[in-house]
Specification:
alpha/beta; Aminopeptidase
């Protein structure tokens, strides 16, 4: 009774005093709790960096990639019209980040800029992102650059199960891959017609970004930047928003 009375008095004071209009602690906690992704941490990895081509020595040096080494990074691809993959990845990731934050998630980005005077981070840094903070998942965002005739569509790559490396995350990573695939399919993005299996899923053991992760992780190739239809989607604000919405749908489904 007294506790209830005390809370009522405090509420009345807030409503009429100098802090009128300022949310109470109870209200703030209730708002946070009402957000569906509150308490979850997501790592977003916008592949490459706009300036990678300007730093060949840095991006070509070998780094750990999961029992072997690979070059630190690469330049990425582009559309035939010159729209860079790094920029696509960055713009989609930023939109996705904003939507995740609005839903209460904590979001960590592996890079915080898209600039011609910067490079990296290397694939080993990207691969380990989220490990120390025990993130719920990591999504690496890319666009493909296949020159195969008529190649178009998205595919999602999950890590294969490798003892001592990815055997602990292979199964949940495949679950994440299937959720992301579902989100993209439901948004109308076509499945890749040039990847074995034809179901939009791929499993690889040669990617440091996946091999070094201790949390469920996937790499998504949103489409083939060399195909005119995919390129039109990627270079339009509406298309990039659709990619972000599809990825958000996949992430939410996985976290449920």
């Amino acid at each position: 009774m007294l506790a209830t009375l005390g809370l009522s008095v405090a509420t009345a004071l807030l409503a009429s005093g100098p802090l009128a209009g300022v949310p109470s602690v109870v209200e703030v906690r209730a708002e946070r709790a009402s957000k569906p992704l509150a308490g979850h941490t997501v790592v977003l990895d916008p592949g490459h960096q706009l300036g990678n081509a300007n730093f060949p020595a840095e991006i070509n040096r070998p780094v750990p990639a999961g029992g072997f080494t690979k070059p630190c990074n690469s330049t990425g691809t582009s559309t035939d019209g010159g729209y860079p993959e790094a920029t696509l990845n960055w713009q989609v990731a930023r939109q996705l980040r904003a939507r995740l934050v609005d839903l209460g998630a904590t979001v960590v980005m592996t890079r915080t800029s898209n600039r011609a005077d910067r490079w990296g981070p290397c694939v080993d840094v990207r691969g380990r992102a989220g490990n120390k903070i025990d993130a719920d998942l990591k999504v690496s965002i890319h666009g493909d650059g296949s020159y195969a005739a008529g190649a178009r569509g998205f595919h999602v790559i999950a890590p294969t199960s490798r003892a001592g490396w990815t055997d602990d995350i292979a199964r949940p990573s495949m679950d994440l891959a299937k959720s992301v695939r579902r989100g993209l399919v439901r948004s109308g993005v076509p499945v890749a017609n040039y990847i074995a299996g034809g179901d939009g899923l791929d499993v690889r053991s040669d990617l440091g970004t996946l091999n070094l992760s201790d949390v469920p992780t996937v790499m998504v190739e949103l489409g083939n930047m060399r195909h005119p239809d995919d390129a039109r989607r990627m270079t339009s604000a509406r298309g990039r928003a659709a990619y972000a919405s599809a990825l958000l749908s996949g992430i939410r489904r996985f976290l449920r």
